[in-house]
Amino acid sequence: MSKSTKKKExxxxxxxxxxxxxxxxxxxxxxxxxxxxxxxxxLISKTKLDGSxxxxxxxxxxxxxxxxxxxxxxxxxxxxxxxxxPATTLSMACISSNVALTTAKNSILQGQIGAAIVGGVEIMSxxxxxxxxxxxxxxxxxxxxxxxxxxxxxxxxxxxSDLLPEIPxxxxxxxxxxxxxxCDKMAAKYGVKREEQDAYAxxxxxxxxxxxxxxxxxxxxxxxxxxxxxxxxTQDNGIRPDSDMEKLGKLxxxxxxxxxxxxxxxxxxxTDGASAGLVMDKDFALKNGYEPKxxxxxxxxxxxxxxxxxxxxxxxxxxxVLDEMNLTLDDIDVFEFHEAFAGQxxxxxxxxxxxxxxxxxxxxxxxxxxIPYDKLNRWGGSLSIGHPFAATGVRLVTTxxxxxxxxxxxxxxxxxxxxxxxxxxxxxxxxxx
Length: 433
Description:
Radius of gyration: 23 Å
CATH topology of the domain at 10-127 and 185-191 and 267-430: Peroxisomal Thiolase, Chain A, domain 1
CATH architecture of the domain at 10-127 and 185-191 and 267-430: 3-Layer(aba) Sandwich
Oligomer: single chain
Number of helices: 13
Structural class: alpha+beta
CATH class of the domain at 10-127 and 185-191 and 267-430: Alpha Beta
Number of strands: 14
């Protein structure tokens, strides 16, 4: 094959993330800009990146601060990258940094750029709280006031309740239901019991604790200084090694009471954190001395009704990427799935292993198959590590690439659900020259 017709490949060089911390803990005074800057700067240092090699920054953020609405641009410049590099902030709920990565892949394949930084950031400790619409409109009217007497009519037509702050809703705009409520309905529909969910959540915490103790997560975590450099945060703080089935069993339903099965113990928690990854054209990477960890192969995005199947997206996405690469689940060595809720994870696993689901929902003759637990989220997942919405996707890819190397595997499957009834799946392959 001549050089001019040689097929381009996109490689994942490496990734990193800040520690993922429970909201209102050590990162509570940080902004998304702060954590995004730290994650990107950490990646630059880790990969010994020459900033001139970067053609674009694609960065995810779901709950945006109006002051840094294009947080990709602000964070990348503050991290020391040349101000000549364009930057785009993307939002697709919990798969925002997945979109960042695949957008970068497409730009590289089209020959527009040779390399990109991708990732995402979320600060749940500082969500934007605004005045109610009626009061906001009154405030905007004051820009037209010309004399002090104009202010006498300011409160005309306002009720005391109009002065109360408006806290952003965590419910789906289309359904009015929270993600937890939808998960409860989905778990009931697919027969996922409370005990199964608690056991899965416990597994996540135990594996994350083991991985932390054995140093498996150390390679992906970028330490962060807090309290004017008095303290350096080096680990996630949401992992509960002391949890057990008895403690989990005592927790009350969090969303559908009194008979729901989703609790605070088997749900992911509000998290502050940021991730960053480096992707490149393979030839460009090798020419410039970078050492890739994986090749980014097939990916897809799906969507279905955002009601009782709000979070089942991976069950639709996974068969698509397998078919595209002519693979089966048996060919996959590493599975890294986003754990929004234990009930969501178990529903997806049951759907993939269901003949009925395959025939009725996927129009397939055979089920996708069973995903063995010994290949799934072996270093913990979002239930234990945490889930800063826009940061999780690149965290999954980073962990998957590291596990492929550690476990001497070839293919890894990344999958995640997202608000709006959406989902994503991706296959990466361990890089070998």
